[in-house]
């Protein structure tokens, strides 16, 4: 199902279409010409708990290779922008789509609402220069910053879920302390909701015509927790600080969302004054959001200390516990107390429903864990550091031949390959034998090269490591149905106990390791994008050395992996 919009203004052509994508079939989302500015907004939803942990991503691809994304987190909004390098089409599908008849009355339990807008004469700079031509996206954050914010939101929301479950199932407070349970539960769900709306801000861009009014943060009323039976003074203090931070995050995120949408509305109306005013409001609120997010790890550490010092209980939240919690959210919605504060902050019902879906679809393996140890999970600290400190440098910009083109069966041009059997990694052109729905890339690298063994492919880029910078890289991984010969079946993805697939960031001619990332398995016959973000410490020995990229694969016979690298941020001119 699609909705179409076409209009003209001075020197600008704008085309827009909204399409509902369901199921594994490919949907045509739009066509574009060489030089067009293409903006894509994807809102995901599901009626299945743990959907974000089921590896069934929404896949969007441009036939020109300018865009390829796979979004596996449901209950979110994501936006992408690129300048087309040639005429082409944009398509979308949900890889591995299925249904859960227990909770869903539809043929598929995943859905994506995809809005594509095509304009011309747009600047590629971020932040966007004002005034903007009609229909061109007004952007305050780069794609790298939005991805970093989204990763931080998921990590923090998972901790909020653990916190709520641990209190409700009696791991922390015990059965005789209802005030403790209520306080920790509110804090946990509030933390998850606050980070859910941070993720919405990072992805949402629709125009709002009410652009002559500057939105103000509406901070919900909050009744301070006081020391009482089951709640020590230190616990009350720690929870109050965390809750106030969460409520402020909700309020400033909503104000930033409204301001950004109104800046887009003003740009579409060719009103440069209000575009500038709304854009400045959005930037101001966004800077406060960054500081609120930066405070979270310290506030969670204080809460953990208060729980330990107060002699509260500890234990493990299991995946079964998480699934039960998510099912309850799916069936009953968010607690009334949380809905009330969201409403007071000006969050509309559609966004509340989106946040509810974000929480009930969280990957159960990310929420499960030991409590209160989970409060200081290093994954959150790393994700927030990446978000707060991001001066994102896309490593793809320094790579020669990121799509691994070359002579079929030989090491891709510009890369160094090794392995047994030789050459370890090789170039080839995937067909429908490997990817029935079509490969998003004309060429890619594959390993092992003869049905078993190991391979390494590496390149020293033109970029240099700088301490304190955050670096991003979008490695797309594919699991083909057949080997490059088109007939030999592929048994699976290289991973323990059947091998390994790993990305390394390296330094200098010796390719010394700087960081390593395990590459997740796609569904058979599909590619997924696996964006990574890494901040180089200011005291790292890599500073000043050339940045290297290396992929390692080890697998037995009949296991195989394909790779391609694409830009992660807004495409350059």
How many helices? 9
CA radius of gyration is 24 Å
Oligomer: single chain
What is the overall silhouette? globular
Q: Ranges with pLDDT <50 over ≥5 residues?
A: 1-11, 569-573
- Structural class determined from secondary elements: alpha+beta
Integer count of domains: 3
Strand segment tally: 22
How much β-strand is present in the residues? Answer: 25-35%
Q: How would you sum up the major sheet?
A: 6 strands, mixed
Mean pLDDT: 87
Distance between the termini: 33 Å
Amount of helix: 25-40%
Describe this structure in words.
- It contains nine helices and 22 strands.
- The model is unreliable at 1-11 and 569-573 (pLDDT under 50).
- It starts with a strand and ends in a 7-residue tail after the last strand.
- The chain is α+β, with helices and mostly antiparallel strands.
- It folds into three domains: 2-123, Jelly Rolls (Sandwich), CATH 2.60.120; 145-388, no CATH class; 393-566, Sandwich (Jelly Rolls), CATH 2.60.120.
- It has helices at residues 143-168, 178-203, 233-268, 272-309, 319-332, 336-344, 349-360, 364-367, 378-388; strands spanning 2-9, 12-21, 27-32, 37-46, 58-62, 68-71, 77-83, 88-94, 110-119, 315-317, 369-371, 393-394, 416-420, 426-428, 444-447, 453-464, 470-479, 500-507, 512-518, 526-535, 546-555, 561-566.
- The protein is globular and about 70 Å long.
- Strands 12, 14, 15, 17, 20 and 22 form a six-stranded mixed sheet that branches.
